[in-house]
Amino acid sequence: IDSCREQEYRDLFGTCKACQQCDAGQELSKECGFGYGVDARCVGCRSARFKEDRGLQKCKPCLDCGLLNRFQKANCSATRNAACGDCLPGYYRKTKLSGFQDMECILCGDQRPAYEPHCKPTSFLFFSPCSPSRTPLQKHLAHIWGNVAAPPFLFSRLKREYRGPWRD
């Protein structure tokens, strides 16, 4: 008996047949190939999975924009992946040496590279959110908050670390 190839199943008569190709939004109900899968049928992609083209490939997991710290522009469907938008406020996309940007947005903070313009310091302690849609009032309030909150924070930190003349 000849063995069936990678994308073939053996029918009830022992003949090798090509595995069924499923439309976009569908995948086979079980593995098919190398003689197995005679009863495999096309079924819809499960929740949070998609497949864009007709073929033998399986449905893939949908992109989760929240896990990437990005806004979601379009929802995932059985035939289309989710589309992510800009970074959430307080995050930025790191640019790789190749010039391309990472999919994941990174929290603005102390480790921000000097060449990254998306997170500008509002004071020497606080970084502004990366969102370019901040109003002048929001910018002003962030600056004031940074200058009001910084002195008490610094004093308590110095007091804890040095336990000098401020000892209780």
TrEMBL record:
<feature type="domain" description="TNFR-Cys">
    <location>
        <begin position="4"/>
        <end position="42"/>
    </location>
</feature>
<keyword id="KW-1133">Transmembrane helix</keyword>
<dbReference type="GO" id="GO:0005886">
    <property type="term" value="C:plasma membrane"/>
</dbReference>
<keyword id="KW-0472">Membrane</keyword>
<dbReference type="Pfam" id="PF00020">
    <property type="entry name" value="TNFR_c6"/>
</dbReference>
<keyword id="KW-1015">Disulfide bond</keyword>
<feature type="domain" description="TNFR-Cys">
    <location>
        <begin position="45"/>
        <end position="84"/>
    </location>
</feature>
<dbReference type="GO" id="GO:0043123">
    <property type="term" value="P:positive regulation of canonical NF-kappaB signal transduction"/>
</dbReference>
<keyword id="KW-0812">Transmembrane</keyword>
<dbReference type="GO" id="GO:0046330">
    <property type="term" value="P:positive regulation of JNK cascade"/>
</dbReference>
<keyword id="KW-0675">Receptor</keyword>
<protein>
    <recommendedName>
        <fullName>TNFR-Cys domain-containing protein</fullName>
    </recommendedName>
</protein>
<dbReference type="GO" id="GO:0038023">
    <property type="term" value="F:signaling receptor activity"/>
</dbReference>
<keyword id="KW-0325">Glycoprotein</keyword>
<dbReference type="InterPro" id="IPR001368">
    <property type="entry name" value="TNFR/NGFR_Cys_rich_reg"/>
</dbReference>
<keyword id="KW-0677">Repeat</keyword>
<dbReference type="InterPro" id="IPR047526">
    <property type="entry name" value="TNR19/27/EDAR"/>
</dbReference>
